[in-house]
Amino acid sequence: MNNKNLYIVRCGEVALKGMNKPYFERVLLERVRAAVRVIDPEAELKWIDGLMFARVDRTLPRETVIRTISRVFGIASVSPAVEAEKDIEKIGETAADFMMELMEEEDIKTFKVKAKRADKNFPIPSPEIGRIVGAKILKRAKVLRVDVHEPDCQIFVDVRREGAYVFRDKIKGFGGLPLGTNGRGLILMSGGIDSPVAAFMMAKRGMRIDAVHFHSYPYTSPMAQKKVERLCGVLAGYMGTLRMHVVNLLPIQEEIVKNCPEEETTILVRRFMMRIAESIAEKQKDMMLITGEDLGQVASQTAEALVVTDAVVKMPVMRPLIAMDKVDIIDKAKEIGTYDISIEPYEDCCTVFLPKHPVTKPKLERIEHSEAKLDVETLVKNAVESAEIVEIGPDAYALS
Ligand code: ATP
Ligand code: MG
Fold this sequence. Notes:
Oligomer: single chain
Largest sheet: 9 strands, mixed
Strand content: 15-25%
Number of helices: 13
Radius of gyration: 26 Å
Shape: elongated
Bound molecules: adenosine-5'-triphosphate, magnesium ion
Order of helices and strands: EHEEHEHEHEEEEEHEHEHHEHEHHHHE
Distance between the termini: 30 Å
């Protein structure tokens, strides 16, 4: 046990899942195990009374372990911790050792101890535990001062039924629910800022994600696709290998440009994207489509345009960003690590044949009237059949 460091891991909503709690806990443990195995194949993990205890190779920097665990969906927070015998003297000594270790890693001048006694059989009440442990720490680390308002470091003492634990800060995870507990969806992935964030948000709620990407080669460059693959690589770091279907939209775009009013090009292209995506989703057993659309962001995302886009598919279309402001989407993209890739300048298929004055309030009957000039079924069928599949795992693109 000495060659391992202890981490206390708290789950978020999993704890609220009532009758299904054992199921969610089991899946969450599996997800954390899979993530931690990559850095320590011998790591030990188990649930005890609603907390997950992870014992991970001592030689690994705590920061690496925390980053690995906290990015697993369903994790509310992680704390580096140490275990102590359930004896107040021992708890005090352990806390003092722990503090000395922390002081080697960072500049700590003030601290505070907060104790909790979940095990009421333990003879000393919480405030008293806090006082005794605080005194032990002060005796050992003479340079420290107690600051109850704004301490550099908070030490928590948790006396539980199965043991006593000393830990510091709760480092926040992403929250959400364990991957695989909420169906499967297909993200329409452009190389932009929005769609990777949309995929992340659905996966965070437990949904497994497949992807479809449209290009207009040779109008769009192969680098544009590589960029999308790199975005998927970052996402795969959170949600495991992504299967991406890659479709050349050019034959359809050319038909639209040849036969339909120019100002309707964008909305017509979008409806084809949705049809193709729905067909791929059905094959993949994806239950819903996901886009990075955001109300009013561009001409194709007005309320009217969204209604006309949706009317073409039966499958539910999820738009997790619909009511977010762009600045907040950008912040999220930065937080999850997709932003820098998203802003690389490669053309998206949507910008090929972009009309000068796109309709912003399309009428469904008019759009359907224009589509009647096209052999929609064959165009969609050909596109779906020509789709290439790329599997993108997290290992291919190192996470920063
Ligand atoms: P993003 O930042 O995700 O590119 P955007 O603001 O540029 O979004 P649009 O280009 O209008 O918006 O696209 C809206 C949504 O349509 C995207 O979020 C994505 O879900 C989908 N989409 C757009 N282009 C493509 C593409 N080339 N392949 C797959 N899906 C696409
Ligand atoms: Mg885009």
